[in-house]
Design a protein that fits this description.
293 residues, alpha+beta, Jelly Rolls, 3 domains, six-stranded mixed β-sheet, four-stranded antiparallel β-sheet, 10 strands
Length: 293
């Protein structure tokens, strides 16, 4: 179980680590995000709320006219004011990123014939104009509630380009790589522990199987006593043997060679009483005779 879990964590850690490294390399090699949109058939280009501060609140804005002789006009205001000012105009509405180089958006058809200049309105927080193109840096004051509208004096399509610097590229991506590396290390450790436990289990199973096999073999094999000498020597044979032979026959047990002799003496009907005990017994017999007399 630990081996499978460790392997899964290690694989996931590798994915996270590689993602972090790729993001880090991408951020270091491409420190700036830039995307563009062309107004197409529409004379005006406008951004939805949140597009100007899509990456961060510091954005570089560039609007390019189709002709260098045209004058480019641009106004930035709150989302409500820009939406109200552009009502009825032919507008390409930028809604977000199609990919990291291009914006996506929708065309809004014209409802009026008038094509007013985008500069000179008291609604704008900021405005710009220039011959052929304009380019400037802008800090969004109200993130999520700021829009832009631009057009050229010849009412031809214009190209809007927004670019941002990636903030904290290393700080954001380096922890991802570190976490991935830690996950790989944890997964490897768990896998090694699981392998060791599995090896120990296999070793224990093999030892148990070998013991069962040995026990089964011993129980199933008949006991052969044909070659075993189990004859017991008689007393006369033991007496006639020397000490070395007796020690060999008795397995070296202390006194084993003389115990049968002592036992045989005690089994005799007549037991020789020691001298001191015999004299005392004689006195007792003599005293008894005097009393009878």
């Amino acid at each position: 179980m630990r081996t499978k879990a460790g392997f899964g964590i290690a694989v996931l850690g590798v994915i996270v680590f590689v993602s972090g490294i790729v993001s880090l390399i991408s951020g270091l090699t491409h420190p700036q995000i830039e995307a563009s949109a062309v107004s197409g058939e529409s004379a005006y280009v406008m951004t939805e709320p949140g597009v100007l501060d899509l990456v961060n609140d510091k954005v570089q804005v560039t609007v390019q006219a189709a002709s260098e002789d045209s004058t480019v006009s641009l106004g930035i205001g709150t989302a409500e004011d820009v939406q109200a000012w552009s009502q009825g105009l032919p507008v390409f509405d930028v809604t977000g990123l199609k990919d990291w180089q291009h914006f996506s958006g929708t065309d809004r058809p014209a409802e009026v014939e008038d094509r007013p200049d985008a500069t000179g309105s008291d609604l704008w927080l900021h405005e710009e104009s220039g011959q052929g193109s304009v380019s400037f840096d802008y800090k969004v004051i109200e993130p999520g509630n700021t829009s832009l509208i631009a057009h050229s004096s010849d009412n031809e399509p214009v190209t809007l380009t927004l670019s941002w610097k990636r903030p904290h590229v290393v700080i954001d991506t380096l922890p991802i790589a570190v976490i991935g590396g830690l996950m790989v290390a944890i997964g490897v450790v768990l896998s090694l522990i699981g392998l060791q436990e599995g090896e120990e289990s296999v070793r224990q199973w093999f030892n148990s199987w070998r013991q069962r096999r040995r026990k089964k073999k011993l129980n199933s094999a008949p006991l052969d006593l044909s070659g075993l000498d189990i004859s017991v020597p008689s007393r006369d044979e033991l007496v006639s043997q020397d000490r070395d032979q007796q020690r060999h026959n008795t397995g070296g047990v202390l006194g084993a060679g003389i115990i049968p002799l002592i036992n045989e003496d005690f089994r005799e009907d007549t037991i020789e009483v020691p001298r001191r005990r015999r004299s005392r017994a004689a006195k007792d017999n003599g005293k008894g005779s005097d009393d009878e007399a």
